Amino acid sequence: MVSDEQYYYGLGRRKSSTARVRLYPGSGGVVINGRPMESVIPREILREDMLRPLSVTGTRSGYNVQILAKGGGVTGWAGAIRLGIARALLQADQSHRSVLRQHQLLTRDARVKERKKPGLVGARRAKQFTKR
Fold first, then answer.
1. Which label site among 7, 8, 12, 93 has the fewest CB atoms less than 10 Å from its CB?
2. Strand 17-25 relative to strand 63-70: parallel, antiparallel, unpaired?
3. How far is it, in rounded angstroms, from Cα 19 to Cα 130?
4. Dmax of the chain from CA atoms?
């Protein structure tokens, strides 16, 4: 995809992942970190979830999507990309706001991994108690 063209930008975050999304007018191609979407995100359910903002607004074949994703893993990337696409769609057309809000696609998922506490095995898991 050519980067000189006019594009709409959106930044998405999820867990420790960050996705910088650019929407170009086009035919619906999706490129993540310079590679086709199918090779980067192998699970079909994550790909559908990631492209949900485009499906909900009916603009799936109207834009080419170019994504730079960093940090975390595949699930975090998918969530970050979803938020980034939703924000970029808002930049492109404010009339999408009500539909995106209805499907809760403009809200950042604030859940992150909880830190391990001292004296415990994990974040909340304690050592097994032995009575005798």
1. 93
2. antiparallel
3. 47
4. 72
Element (H, E) at 74: helix 74-92
pTM of the model: 0.89
Query: How far apart are alpha carbons 90 and 72 in whole angstroms?
Result: 26
Q: What are the two backbone dihedrals, phi and then psi, of residue 57, each rounded to the nearest 5 degrees?
A: -85, -5
> What separation in angstroms does the CA of 42 have from each of 4, 37, 89, 111?
30, 8, 24, 23
Half-sphere exposure of 88 (CA within 13 A, CB side): 29
In sequence order, the 6+-apart residues with CB closer than 8 A to the CB of 102 are none
The C-alpha angle with vertex 29 and arms to 67 and 99, in degrees rounded to 5, equals 75
pLDDT in tens, 15-33: 999 999 999 999 989 999 9
**3-state secondary structure at position 118:** coil
CATH architecture of 8-102: 2-Layer Sandwich (3.30)
